[in-house]
Specification:
The structure holds 2 protein chains of 2 kinds. Chain A contains 12 helices and 9 strands. Chain A has helices at 21-38, 64-75, 96-104, 120-127, 143-157, 175-186, 204-207, 217-220, 245-252, 256-259, 282-285, 292-311, and strands at residues 53-58, 79-84, 110-115, 131-137, 164-168, 190-194, 212-214, 226-229, 267-269. In chain A, helix 1 packs across helix 12 (292-311) and helix 3 packs across helix 4. In chain A, 45% of the residues are buried. Chain B has a single domain (8-76, 85-178), classed as Rossmann fold. The longest helix of chain B is centred in the N-terminal third of the chain and has 19 residues, at 12-30. In chain B, the strands form 2 sheets. Chain B has a 5-stranded parallel sheet. A 3-stranded antiparallel sheet of chain B has the order 1-8-7. Chain B has helices at 12-30, 44-60, 112-122, 167-170, and strands spanning 8-10, 36-41, 65-69, 100-108, 129-137, 149-153, 161-165, 174-178. Chain B is α/β, with parallel strands linked by helices. The radius of gyration of chain B is 16 Å and the shape is globular. In chain B, helix 1 (12-30) packs across helix 2. Classes of the chains: A alpha/beta, B alpha/beta.
Chain lengths: 319, 181
């Protein structure tokens, strides 16, 4: 008969770290099926999560990620509750666990959460029967962003293995980088982290020994297949680590002159939001090498794939 | 799985003969119909639809429209699957409006796949009429759905499985009876 069927072995998506290369490939393959749904000329909604209840629990600001999840949920026909952290009991002193237990008492199938505390999702997962999807936890992980980056890169280059990718900017505060480091190294890509020494945490190579560190953007650009620029997260205190935005831009901005150093078909990515004129110029962000809006487009089918896999038979061997 | 090979209901040559017959029946029904299109249900229904399209082109000397339908997202038994369901793209490279669509699948059993296929199809447009062609009807229907064109008619106990294999993915053409050793 046929080969044993693959079973997605996770009940939650807490991060990329617990996923195997096979799990990552399964999500990306699944996403291409959902991309077709998203590009249909007329009806872009399928009944796959009909009668499932999804709670979007956002304790930190988010526009792109929250909208993307909500569109993904609606395209799967899920029932949606948006939990507004500002008006919630948390502002009245309720703990996260109590909030979660109250939600649990209403039997949701899936909880999509963003929280400022690293590991908040893992804590919740121990107390909940619902599946938890991490939509960002502090500077820890943002797994669906890394998955949509990978989907975008795989679509452009055919595969991730062997690709050379530079991630440039505020490495210190970026959860996107951590999820991308797990994902890209698991899939056999070569990652170079670029930025001023103050924005690259010491000891990052203990966790990812195969990663290259550079403080010289212009030196590494010619060898890269893709360049991912990151926003300086001033709201997380990045301003204390760089002399000024102008000084940062002088050395690490991706601009037209630096694009001339790159391979002609280099892919430019950015997880957003962009600070135009700081980490990247408008000319490059809106230029022919930019995949920034493709990343946004691809976010929906990738999140549909994650929600669909978690709402259907999966194993529970690993969190 | 048992070591003894599953009994063969149709070998490769007989599969070909049955497909030829299906093809002639489709020609007899809508040979001159300009709006005809075939839509194969992934996975094996699509390979059978591809072969029918080639046969129809030979007979009718005109191009036959062919599409692929994935029904995973429309199934009513997703929560009962043994493995994670795998979604593949639906590809319908023509408009469905006013079209005569022949759905093609390998085996019809409960009829639930075809129910899902019709829901999926109708999300892509409003054809004039939907017909159903299957290589094998094994009985056991749970919904009021019957094929219009059928190769092999069987009455198989519910604990047996009728399995169609195609060279493209299984390395062999044939229809086999599996289960219960």
């Amino acid at each position: 008969m046929t080969a044993p069927r693959y079973l997605f072995p996770h009940r939650h998506l807490l991060g990329i770290q617990p996923l195997s290369p096979q799990d990552i490939t399964a999500i990306l393959d699944q996403a291409s099926g959902f991309e077709e749904v998203c590009e249909r000329p007329e009806i872009k909604i399928v009944p796959a999560l009909r009668k499932r209840l999804v709670v979007n629990l956002f304790f930190e600001n988010s526009t792109r990620t929250r909208n993307s999840f909500e569109i993904a949920e609606k395209r799967l026909s899920a029932e949606i509750i948006n939990f507004d952290a500002d008006s919630s009991s948390l502002s009245k002193g309720e703990t996260l666990i109590d909030t979660a237990m109250n939600l649990q008492a209403m039997h949701p199938d899936l909880i999509v959460m963003r929280h400022s505390a690293p590991g908040a999702h893992a804590l919740l997962a121990r107390h909940m029967r619902a599946s938890i999807v991490n939509a960002g936890d502090g500077a820890h992980e943002h797994p669906t962003q890394a998955l949509l980056d990978a989907y975008t890169l795989r679509k452009r280059f055919g595969q991730l293995e062997g690709l050379r990718i530079a991630i440039v900017g505020d490495i210190r505060n970026s959860r996107v980088v951590r999820s991308n480091l797990w994902l890209l190294t698991k899939m056999g890509a070569h990652v170079t982290l670029v930025g001023p020494p103050t924005l690259i945490p010491e000891g990052i190579q203990h966790s990812w020994p195969n990663v290259t560190i550079s403080n010289d953007l212009e030196a590494i650009l010619p060898s890269q297949d893709a360049v991912m620029t990151l926003r300086c997260q001033f709201e997380r205190g990045t301003g204390a680590f760089i002399p000024s935005q102008g000084e940062y831009a002088r050395f690490f901005q991706l601009n037209a002159a630096r694009m001339k150093l790159c391979k002609p078909d280099v892919a430019v990515l950015h997880p957003g939001p962009i600070n135009r004129g700081v980490e990247i110029t408008s000319e490059v962000a809106d230029g022919p090498n930019s995949l920034i809006l493709s990343q946004v487009t691809n976010g929906v089918p990738v999140r549909m794939a994650v929600l669909f896999l978690l709402c259907n038979p999966h194993g529970e061997q690993v969190p | 799985m048992p070591d003894t090979p599953a009994p063969c209901l149709l070998d490769a040559r007989q599969v070909e003969i049955h497909l030829q017959r299906l093809c002639r029946e489709i020609v007899a029904a809508f040979g001159n119909n300009e709006s005809l299109a075939l839509l194969g249900i992934r996975t094996r229904g699509l390979y059978l639809a591809e072969r029918l399209a080639v046969m129809l082109q030979d007979i009718l000397q005109k191009e036959i429209l062919l599409g692929a339908l994935d029904i995973t997202l429309y199934r009513d038994d997703l929560s009962e699957l043994a493995g994670s369901p795998i979604v593949r793209p639906t590809e319908i490279p023509f408009t469905l409006k006013d079209r005569t669509v022949v759905l093609v699948d390998d085996v019809i059993f409960t009829g639930r796949t075809i129910r899902a296929a019709m829901d999926a199809l109708l999300d892509h447009g409003r054809p004039d009429r939907i017909w159903l062609a299957v290589l094998a009807d094994r009985g056991g229907r749970q919904l009021p759905i019957q094929p219009d064109f059928m190769g092999l008619k069987l009455d198989v106990p519910l604990d047996r499985r009728v399995s169609v294999k195609v060279t493209e993915i299984d390395g062999i053409d044939g229809v086999f009876l599996e289960g219960r050793g």
